Amino acid sequence: MRLLTLLTTCLSVAAAATLGKRAPTPGQLSQVTSFGNATTAAGFYIYVPKNLAASPGVIVAVHYCTGSAQAYYNGSPYAALAEQYGFIVIYPSSPHSGTCWDVSSKATLTHNGGGDSNTIANMATWTVSQYNADASKVFVTGSSSGAMMTNVLAATYPDIFKAAIVYSGVPAGCFVSASGAVDAWNSTCAQGNSIATPEAWTDVVKNMYLNYTGARPKMQIYHGSADTILLPQNYQETMKQWSGVFGYNYSQPQSTTLNNPQSGYTKTVYGESVQGIYAENVGHTVPIRGTDDMEFFGFAS
Ligand SMILES: *[C@@H]1O[C@H](CO)[C@@H](O)[C@H](O)[C@H]1NC(C)=O
Ligand SMILES: *[C@@H]1O[C@H](CO)[C@@H](O)[C@H](O)[C@H]1NC(C)=O
Ligand SMILES: *[C@@H]1O[C@H](CO)[C@@H](O)[C@H](O)[C@H]1NC(C)=O
Ligand SMILES: *[C@@H]1O[C@H](CO)[C@@H](O)[C@H](O)[C@H]1NC(C)=O
């Protein structure tokens, strides 16, 4: 009996180890080990819903520092929402010790530069072709380090991502390492001391994908006023960045509404493509608002 249990365990471990070679199991977080150009060692986990839409959308959900694909799968609402709306969720997993994302190297801050952003973009491209997904419904979101990466992906792969939701990050390029280090911490930025004009932040984005003239993802930015890890000035800087990229006047938002979408939150809309939500007295990180995310991404109306 014991031997049988042992044998069964061995068999299921072997089965798990070869999972990447098989099609991901619907309704289960599955690892994909072979997907074309993995330019860094970032892990690729995928959730294909049992209720897969005919031409599904894709959401890339990027974990926070110290997190993992598994932790973000468990701690975010996207897999459950995938069953409801039929989209696929990609959960990338950081290859770096401490498991933050590389948002500091020249490689990751450049379109097709060979950094983590490139690897994640390739996961999205692979998923679109593998599942006949709808390329006009490819989205990205993330929390903290994953929110920084979300801004970086929006800047480096505007051709892939159609919308992005940022939960408590910093502007794209704010965490840059002057020495080019991979996965570096940048305390100037974290402390809210990287302050620039909308024009300067716009150039930071445009320089990540030179000569790109196509559409860019619409952006929704959340930040808490009591964030002591990535100081709230990063909210202002991120809003400057994306309002600048879209040609909105940062000093003149279209509308500002108090207690929206909930008491103590303030929503500022610059136009169709940029909106921010500042959460009074909320620390690091603003809780994910899954139902609202579905609206922003266009799965729900
Ligand atoms: C791999 O990279 C090459 C060169 O950048 C590109 O042409 C190709 O489409 C990529 N393949 C995948 C599956 O992303
Ligand atoms: C931190 O980022 C800022 C831009 O936000 C940059 O000017 C500075 O050089 C970076 N610090 C280091 C130590 O690389
Ligand atoms: C961008 O365009 C300029 C002018 O045509 C060209 O010199 C440069 O090589 C291009 N850069 C990239 C990265 O394609
Ligand atoms: C932007 O808005 C500010 C505040 O309303 C205004 O003073 C400024 O002239 C506007 N800038 C442009 C370029 O329209």
From TrEMBL:
Transmembrane segments: none
SUPFAM superfamilies reported in the protein's UniProt record: alpha/beta-Hydrolases
Keywords: Carbohydrate metabolism, Glycoprotein, Hydrolase, Polysaccharide degradation, Secreted, Serine esterase, Signal
Leader sequence segment: 1-16
GO CC list: extracellular region
Family designation: Belongs to the carbohydrate esterase 1 (CE1) family.
Function: Esterase involved in the hydrolysis of xylan, a major structural heterogeneous polysaccharide found in plant biomass representing the second most abundant polysaccharide in the biosphere, after cellulose.
Name of the protein in question: Carboxylic ester hydrolase
